[in-house]
Design goal:
alpha+beta; capsid protein of prophage fold; 6-stranded mixed sheet; 5-stranded mixed sheet; 11 helices; 29% helix
Length: 346
């Protein structure tokens, strides 16, 4: 039985169609819908092209890099293979979905978000009498633009050095690039949570030992953590970001209870006594805990997915091939994220 994917014409221009990724262009040429009920229904358009040219990218029997360059058309697939491996690395141990309430895609490097800043009266629950004015919630555009940042790595390797390398192992290196890019985006997100997005919306900072947080500076106690948690009303502190403060949190006596211990020891997921998910990142300042309501605190703004210099990769000019991703972050509700500084003893 002949399939349409075997006759699709591939060329590098498929990477430059405005508003469409290479895979979307392929899907337009070779829709997956027409493979329902066939042995190929579990493959997308790119994976069908790998099958067409008999390129195996996984497992101990994976092909070498040079297999992509056996023909001109198969070489066109190489940049998409690189991008997919990098995206896989970005998705591994990705904490951003656990921090962001919404994701917005834009064209360009600047973005104007919206905000609603409720006052004390707006947060109250008031009875609306018959014929009375219904309380209002004002939504406005932010005064300053949110800047997006290009994060990436340069792939530096000669074709001669990698042409005989197995794709399965080469993918590991590409996934590491993806993981590095994602850590940079996470650092951007943490910076916005703490310092704001340029619209005078930095997080409120509390210090252990200074009212309303009990305890002594330099020492984290369960009482101090509860005091911090209580500052979030009407929001809920359901996520905690920590760096080196993770050890202090895990050593609290309350973290030794059966449920918390079983969760951490059995799954590696760190749950605090008040039910908040704890995420660890080296981008969190020392002796600092960031609390947030993940449903209301942060918006992720994507300017692009993974971008690769497809011309260089297709032409085997890997010596200086950039791999990048563009993202930024905007605060949604300022009070939905707060900072607790443990401080230094003495």
């Amino acid at each position: 039985m002949a399939y349409h994917f075997e006759t699709v014409k591939l060329d590098k221009g498929m990477y430059s169609e405005s508003g469409r990724s290479f895979t979307k262009v392929l899907e337009k040429c070779d829709p997956s819908e027409q493979y329902k009920g066939t042995p190929l229904e579990h493959l997308d358009a790119f994976q069908r092209q790998l099958k067409r040219f008999d390129i195996k990218v996984k497992g101990m029997d994976s092909d070498v890099v040079s297999k992509f360059f056996a023909t001109w058309e198969s070489a066109v697939l190489f940049p998409e293979y690189v991008a997919r491996a990098v995206r896989q690395g970005m998705e591994e141990s990705n904490i951003l979905p656990l921090m962001t309430a919404a994701e917005t895609r834009v064209d360009g490097m600047d973005y104007r978000s919206i905000a609603s800043v409720p006052g004390a009266e707006d947060k109250g629950l008031k009875m609306v009498a018959e014929g009375a004015v219904i309380p209002e919630t004002s939504i406005r555009a932010q005064e300053n633009l949110v800047k997006l940042h290009k994060r990436g790595r340069m792939l530096v390797a000669s074709y001669e050095a990698i042409q005989h390398q197995r794709l399965d192992l080469f993918s590991v290196t590409l996934r590491q690039i993806g993981a590095y890019i994602n850590r940079m985006h996470a650092a951007d997100a943490i910076d916005v949570l703490v310092n704001g997005d340029g619209n005078n919306n930095a997080a409120q900072v509390y210090t252990v030992g200074t009212a309303p947080i009990s305890g002594a500076a330099g020492t984290l106690s369960y009482d101090a953590l509860v005091d911090f948690w209580s500052q979030f009303d009407p929001y809920t502190m359901n996520t905690i970001l920590v760096g080196d403060a993770a050890a202090k949190l895990l050593k609290l006596d309350e973290m030794q209870d059966a449920m918390a211990g079983l969760t951490f020891q059995g799954t590696g997921k760190m749950i605090t006594p008040m039910g908040a998910t704890m995420l660890r990142s080296s981008a969190v300042p020392s002796n600092t805990i960031i609390g947030l309501d993940k449903h209301y605190a942060l918006e992720m703004v994507k300017g692009s997915d993974v971008l690769v210099e497809y011309d260089k990769l297709i032409d085997r000019q890997l010596e200086r091939a950039a791999i990048t991703s563009i993202s930024g972050f905007a605060k949604i509700f300022q009070d939905a994220s707060k900072v607790l500084q443990i401080g230094s003893a003495g």
